[in-house]
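Handout, section B. The chain below has 425 residues.
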Amino acid sequence: MYPDIRSQLLDTSTDEELISVIYNTTLKDEAHREILRGLVIELHNLSQFDVVGAYSHLENPTPSGEDFFLLRHVFEEIILELNSSASEMMQCIMHLTKQASNDLSSGALLPHFVNWLVGDESRLNEAFELLVSEDSQFGSLMPQVIEAGSRTNPDKYINYCINLLEDDDIELCRKAIFSIGRISFREVSKHTKVCASAVSAAVERDDDRLRATALKTLFHICRSDTSIVKDTIEVIKFLLEAPEEYTLHAAAELFAWELTEIPEALLVTLLEKLQKTPILNAGTWEFIDQGIRKLVKTEQQEKALSFLEELAMDVPDLDIFKTFKSTYHSLLEDRKLVNKVVTRWLLRGRASLKNFAAKMILQASSVSPIGADVDEFDPDSPIHVVFLARKAIGYFFLNEGNSATNFILSLMNSTSSKDALNTLS
C-alpha cells in the first residue's frame, strides 16, 4: 500500500503534479500522512524533486481546487527537515504568506521559518546577508531573521536593529522597531535597557505607524525588565498624548490581549485615550470591546462600567449595545452583575445605557427574575425608589412586563420608606 506513495511522488514531473499527490495523500488517514511527510523530506533532500520550489508557486485558490491551507499545513510539518538555500526558502515563505492574504492564520508559517533558521547557522548567516544587501527584497522577513539571530548571537542582530532606528527611511526604522519586539528579552535581558532607550528616542519622529509599532514593542520590552517599567510607561504615555489611527489601534490591541500585564498607571491612560477612538474605526472598537469584556470580570470592574458610562456621555452617537456585543454577553453570565448594571444605568445612565440595560433584561429574565441592587441606590430614599420604578416601567414594561414587575417588587422589598411603598402599591 505505502510503496505506492513513493512511486507516485517519483512519477511527478511538474510542480502541479507533486502538489496533487501531496494533497490527495493528505486526505487519507494519519498513517498515510506520516509516510508522506517522511518520503517528501527524504526525496526532496535527495534532489528527486524540489518541494520548496513547488510550494513557491502554490496559489490561493489553487487552480485544481485543493485546500490551500491544508497543503500549507503539510509544509509547516516538514519545513524543519528540508534542505534548502536561505534565498529559496525565504522566497517560498514570502509567497505562501502573501497567498494567505488577510486570513487570520496568514502568519502561521513564520514561527516554523524562525526555527528552520535557528537549526543551521549557515542558513541564518545567508539569510542575514540577504537581508542587509543593497536593494534587498527580503525586508518583510526582517523580524523573523532578527528573532532567530537574537537566539544565537544577540549582540550582532540587536545592534543591527538599533543602528537602523536612526535611518532616514521611516519604513525601515519601523521594521527595525517591530523586529526588536520579536526578541525574547527574557533570554537576553542585558539588552532591555539599550533597546528601550533606542526605541524611545525613535518615537520623536512624527509618524503614526512607527509610533504604533513602538508602543507595542516598548510594552513587550518592559514586561521583561521591571527596572525600566516606570520610564517606559512614561514614553508610552507620550505616544498616547495625541494618538492617531494606528497608535489608537495598537493601544486597543494592547488593552484586549495584555490586560492582566498592564500596570495600573498605564491602564488609566489607555482607558482615557481609547474613548477618543473615532466611531467609524470598527476594528479598533472590537479590540476595546474585548478589553472591556475582560476588565468587567476583574476587581477593576468599576473602571469598565465607568468607561461605558463616560463613553455614552461623551459620544452620544455611538451605539453602545452594537459596539459592545462581547461585553454584553459577558455581563449576562453573572446575574449579580446584571442586577448591578441594570440598577445603576436606570438610575443615572444615558438613554443608550438604559437601552442596553433593557436588552439585558429581555435576555436575562428568561433564566431568572432581575432584581434591584441595593448597593447602587439608597433604599430608604423614596425619590430613588420611585424614580427607579418609573424607569423600569418606561424601559421594560412594554417588551418585558414580568421583568418590570419583578424589578419593582424587589424595590418594594428593599425599602422601608412608607412614602415609596404607598406610591408603588
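Note. The two ends are 84 Å apart (CA to CA). Compare this with the example in section A.
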